[in-house]
Amino acid sequence: MAVNVETLDKLERRITLTLAADTINGEVESRLKKLSRTVKADGFRPGKVPMSVVAQRYGYSVQYEVVNDRVGQAFNEATNEAKLRVAGPPKITQKEAAPEGQMAFDATFEVYPEVKIGDLGAAEVERISTEVSEAAIDRTIEILRKQRRTFGLRPHAEGAVEGDRVTIDFEGKIDGEPFDGGKATAFQFIIGEGQMLAQFDQAVRGMKVGESKTFPLQFPADYQGKDVAGKEADFLVTVSKIEAQNLPAVDEHLAKALGIKEATVEALREDVKKNLEREVKFRVQARNKAAVMDALSNAAELELPNALVAGETERLIAKAREDLKERGVKDAENAPIPAEIFKPQAERRVRLGLVVSELVRLHNLRAQPDQLRAHIEEISQSYEKPADVMRWYLGDRQRMAEVEAVVIENNVTEFVLKQVKVIDKVLPFDDLMNTA
């Protein structure tokens, strides 16, 4: 049967669906009879409730279900017949006028757009690379040492220096008046590790146990405490305890404590290097992938289905509410989050999703089984029990779908980099690792 498809807008379509009233009524009656076998009502034994009572109580809801099912089935058949790729759920409205013995419905929906990908050879993409230096290995080992450090009391005659853990009492005032959060007792922090504002940190350096000092402190204009941001305070600080840090030596004992099998300094450095290289690889891939996706998006022409953008916006809002809930925000699930906040991000994600899908289809860039397994193996190497991680991924369809999406994006990235003009750039290790 030919399907009449009306074009309402660039991607919006409408088709009219007709259903035989007798078919609907017959299905409703059949479902009510089945329901009557188990329905309960006061004054009647189970299975003996009169059909009139069953129909009165459940007739409307059953008819609603039947109509929904039949309309959905008719819609799928019609769109398949017309070879339409439907983007998002249709809007169904019943028509008042219909042929005798028929029920008529209008289904308004959007279709997937035609995606035109321009000449990628005209695009430029900056491809970064980063090497793991000996200095980076040294700094990482230093971090590992600090994670296992101990603290011992420093002699009273000695002043506090960088790396010391100090215990202090302090009180701050602005224009002679105390302010919220400006007072604490037995407060601890480690000098030189950025736990306090630089002026505060610097003022405590050199102080001895029992010593007090008053000093001015200028709060930054962008300070998180809005009540004091940009203002100057006077702080009175008294030091009650100073503890010097004791860092473990870089030797076989440290290597053993860190779980290095050979328990040598050389093996420790090699293990740190491998872990850093793995992290660098993932970060470089993410940066290069983002650059490729930008170039790909700019080279493509397509219309965005509003239904897909709305659906993606809802997913982003739901994720934001989930994040708020994890942070302990009360009634996070009902937090008023305007859709406009996420619309640009949703549009970008939908756009990229459509463009990537088209590129995958045109050039057969789907994830292959060996690629999926290799990616999971690489991820698992950063865990203590790689085999368990492998099983964890392979045993869950949702997790495998996430891995597949990553591998497909990697395939697309590699394909695009072969088409575009690549500008290679070596990014220093620190710049890569410090990029949020």
Written overview of the protein:
The two termini are 57 Å apart. The protein has three domains: 6-111, 2-Layer Sandwich (Alpha-Beta Plaits); 150-246, Roll (Chitinase A, domain 3), CATH 3.10.50; 263-433, Trigger factor, domain 2, CATH 1.10.3120. The radius of gyration is 33 Å and the shape is elongated. The protein has helices at 21-36, 51-81, 134-147, 198-204, 252-257, 265-299, 306-326, 343-363, 369-380, 386-394, 397-419, 429-433, and strands spanning 6-7, 12-20, 86-94, 102-111, 116-117, 124-129, 150-153, 165-174, 177-190, 212-218, 232-246, 300-301, 421-426. β3 and β4 form a beta hairpin. The model has no long low-confidence stretch (mean pLDDT 90). With 436 residues, the protein is of the alpha+beta class.
Furnish the topology, listing elements before pairings.
Elements: E1 6-7, E2 12-20, H1 21-36, H2 51-81, E3 86-94, E4 102-111, E5 116-117, E6 124-129, H3 134-147, E7 150-153, E8 165-174, E9 177-190, H4 198-204, E10 212-218, E11 232-246, H5 252-257, H6 265-299, E12 300-301, H7 306-326, H8 343-363, H9 369-380, H10 386-394, H11 397-419, E13 421-426, H12 429-433
Parallel strand pairs: 6-13
Antiparallel strand pairs: 1-2, 2-4, 3-4, 5-12, 7-11, 8-9, 8-11, 10-11
Helix pairs in contact: 1-2, 3-6, 6-11, 7-8, 9-10, 9-11
